[in-house]
Amino acid sequence: MNEAELFTRLNRVFRKVFDDPRITVNRTTTAKDIEDWDSLEHITLIGAVEREFKMRFTMKEVSSMKNVGEMADIIASRAG
Length: 80
Description:
By secondary structure, this protein is mainly α. The chain is built from four helices and no strands.
């Protein structure tokens, strides 16, 4: 899977979780960029991303992600 495909799928997940078809995430997107992205929605988002990519993040990975790019890197490393 290339980065474009990965972000197409991530955008689909973000749009569904936040119920906003206008959301477009990129490598630098953070919780500050999406109005409803709070700690509760973060848990929902992580679960949705895990289901989409059929993988599980570790607690360390979840707590260390600073932006969507870091999330994408973890997913890409697992898809390997």
